[in-house]
Amino acid sequence: MRLDDEQESSNYEIQRGGGGLPGFGGGGGGGMIGMLLPLIGSKFGCTGVVIALAVLAFLNFSGGGLMTGGSPVAPPAEQGQPAPGAQGDLTQVQSFSLKVLGTTERVWGEVFREHGQQYQPTVLSFYAQSGRSGCGAAQSAMGPFYCPLDKKIYLDTDFFNELRQRFGAPGDFAQAYVIAHEVGHHIQNLEGTLGQVNQAQRSAGTAEANAMQVKVELQADCYAGVWGKRTGLMEAGDMEEGLKAAEAIGDDTLQRQAGQRPMPDSFTHGSNEQRMAWLRRGLQTGDPASCDTFAQGR
Q1: 143 vs 184 pLDDT, higher one
Q2: Residue 139 burial by CB count (10 A; 0-12/13-18/19+): exposed, middle or buried?
Q3: Which of 31, 52, 54, 295 has its CA at a distance of 20 to 30 angstroms from the CA of residue 71?
Q4: Per 3-state DSSP, what percentage of the chain is helix, strand, and coil (rounded to 5)?
Q5: DSSP states of 174-211 as a string?
Q6: Is residue 31 a contact partner of residue 25, using CB atoms and an 8 Å limit?
Q7: Residue 217: which pLDDT band, with cuts at 50, 70 and 90?
Q8: Distance between CA atoms of 103 and 107, rounded to whole angstroms?
Q9: Which bin fits 119, alpha (ψ -120 to 50), beta or left (φ > 0)?
Q10: Percent of the chain predicted with pLDDT > 90
Q11: Per-position b or e across 175-200, b if 16+ CB within 10 A of its CB
């Protein structure tokens, strides 16, 4: 992507020192199990937060994947101090991430203005290993995620190394796609989609709730594609990088890598074919209206 001339977003914070929350520290399975049990028992219905529970369980017990939600089982934690304008303290990866975030603000600002509305940007919160979010503990094992309660994206930038080395999805556009996907969840939150789906999941069975979550994630993929198309910054090979990343984090791909047989009823993010298809749709159309994954038959 041609990001050299792009401005870094000022909507960020850097959590210093990590630490997580009592009972959830260290990234180990025991703390995460304690966080999962009440969530599983309530069938995803946690104070309006839409989360991918099956993928979180898969991350901690089987070894890899993306999670795009948080867990509000603890009170909202104190956030790291915002550091607007402190560019001298930014790492190269953080600077890149903020340039990507800045382009999402430009693109979605234009989209919202086209519909007579004003876009409210999200905040990107950087942390290392473990941190805190308005939805509870933030840990690197979760992957990047969006918290609807505080409208922030949480990112341990070491995930980009994992994306390249572990998932075999290198390239700047692959990294940008991850951020744009989480911004897609912010758009869904502003639209009211996350709250509507969460409400529907409360009375749904596990398989049905998972299917709803898949539609949420695929729409965020499509929104990421819309962003990519409308930036005007894509270069040759960028689409391929994004599609390779989408393929690498499909539920079926991750389950096979864990030595499991893919079980569609357990999918919460979609198969690799679905993720690539919806990302491609957004990249080709640049139209958010084309991203209605909830339409019957899709």
Answers
A1: 184
A2: buried
A3: 295
A4: 55, 10, 40
A5: HHHHHHHHHHHHHHHHHHTHHHHHHHHHHTS-HHHHHH
A6: yes
A7: very high
A8: 6
A9: beta
A10: 58
A11: bbbbbbbbbbbbbbbbeebbeebbee
Which residue, chain included where needed, has tokens 């298809």? 277
Residue 296's pLDDT is 59
Q: How far is CA 286 from CA 51, 179, 234, in A?
A: 26, 17, 13
Q: Tokens at residue 21, please?
A: 């929350």
Over residues 71-91, the pLDDT tens digits come to 222 233 333 344 443 445 789
* Maximum separation of any 2 CA atoms in the chain, in Å: 50
SS3 assignment, position 14 = strand
Mean pLDDT of all residues in 115-143: 94
- What is the tally of helices (H) and strands (E) in the chain? 10, 6
Comparing CA positions, the residue from 16, 44, 20 lying closest to residue 30 is 20
Q: Where are the alpha helices (DSSP H) in 9-166?
A: 29-41, 53-62, 92-114, 159-165
pTM, 2 dp: 0.78
